[in-house]
Amino acid sequence: MSRLLMIAPAPVIELSDGKLRLDVKFVEGMNVHVAEWDGPVTCILKRGAEDIPFGATYDRADLDFTLEIIDREAAIDVRDLTANDLIFAGADMYDVLHLAAPEQRPAGTKLVYAIEYDQDTRLRIASLDGKRSFLRKLRSKVWLLNQERRRRAALRGCDGVQANGYPAFSAYSKLNNNTILYLDGRMRHAIMATPQEQAARAVHLQSDAPLRLVHSGRLEPLKGGQDLIPVARALHQAGVNFTLDIFGSGSLGADIAKDIAAAGLGDMVHLHEPVDFETALVPFMRQNADLFLSCHRQSDPSCTYLECLGCGIPVVGYKNAMWQHMAVQSGGGWAVTLGEINALADKISELSGNPAALLKAGELGLEFAKAHAFETEFSKRMTHLADIARAP
């Protein structure tokens, strides 16, 4: 039996009655870790969250794992935690990179990092932060460069690395011989598109009905939400028969609603509040969508791509480093010039007259998603951790 210590960036709020508000996806993920791990699991979180949009209230006694909560500014010190056989932490967090030094953890305790962002993505996000002045952005980039040196040293010095997505794997796999690639997502085999749903989509696409576009995600500049209505406007001007359902909320939500009305698109573009992923969004996409519109410019390993493919619908999006690679590997969609709104509209216009291409991409994408279902990817990761914990 091995003891696992996880250090996560998930938010936590301690309530006055002693209960905790936690992100639902975090708790569900921790429960799967507990189920897959042969031994007790502890997780360290930091205080400081003010709001958890997709959260729920939990009693500590009802959690299947031990939760340690420390102050936001507190240093993470595990040197007295001698009972843990393996520490699993996110290398995107700068305050865990010191743990790679042998003297920073108990003798014999293994260390594995997970990594999601490459440095280009971090720098691009810093550049797009509209709340910061030029000088603050410059300082942020210098700080990021310094942290990257620490991060690369830590990845060299740990016992293993799990890279989420193609950009992170490409950037860091050469630093550590025990690096695995995984594709994060929430699509289990049980909720993927059925043959009957694929057949119904084929009937729809081969009729004169509108092409059903869908988008989901946070409506923020970093996620490309500002491009959604310009794409829809270009499609409308080109005479494309389509509908677009947008699921999400964020700082751009009010502007998007106004732009829909101003462009006279209310009959074809519909803005929805966020809905539950498994019980509402997935069934909607499986049964009421033909193509996912992605305007995401960053190269982070967004799980949205894989989740759309699991619903049987292909993706058209910008040629960021993540989607460009996945589009080729899966055959499940198309990547166009980064930031070119007209390129997205032109590709959708072309596809609206080619149902065979949409159906083929949907089938190829679904098969790719099945090969990388949540169960498969998670089992691979847990086996990797267990092998490292058992190694001499």
Structural features:
392 residues; alpha/beta; Rossmann fold; 7-stranded parallel beta sheet; 6-stranded parallel beta sheet; 19% strand
Textual characterization of the structure:
- The chain has 392 residues and is an alpha/beta fold.
- The protein has two domains: 4-187 and 374-390, Rossmann fold; 189-371, 3-Layer(aba) Sandwich (Rossmann fold).
- Helix content is 41%, strand content 19%.
- The protein has 13 helices and 16 strands.
- It has helices at 24-36, 119-127, 134-157, 166-172, 195-205, 228-237, 253-262, 277-288, 304-310, 321-330, 341-352, 355-371, 374-390, and strands at 4-7, 12-14, 20-23, 41-46, 55-58, 66-70, 86-90, 110-115, 160-164, 179-182, 211-216, 242-247, 269-272, 291-293, 315-318, 333-336.
- The strands form three sheets. It has a seven-stranded parallel sheet with strand order 6-4-1-7-8-9-10, sandwiched between helices. The chain has a six-stranded parallel sheet with strand order 13-12-11-14-15-16, sandwiched between helices.
- Strand 11 (211-216), helix 6 and strand 12 (242-247) form a beta-alpha-beta unit.
- Helix 6 (228-237) packs across helix 11.
- The longest helix has 24 residues, at 134-157.
- It is globular and about 65 Å long.
- The two termini are 15 Å apart.
- The mean pLDDT is 94.
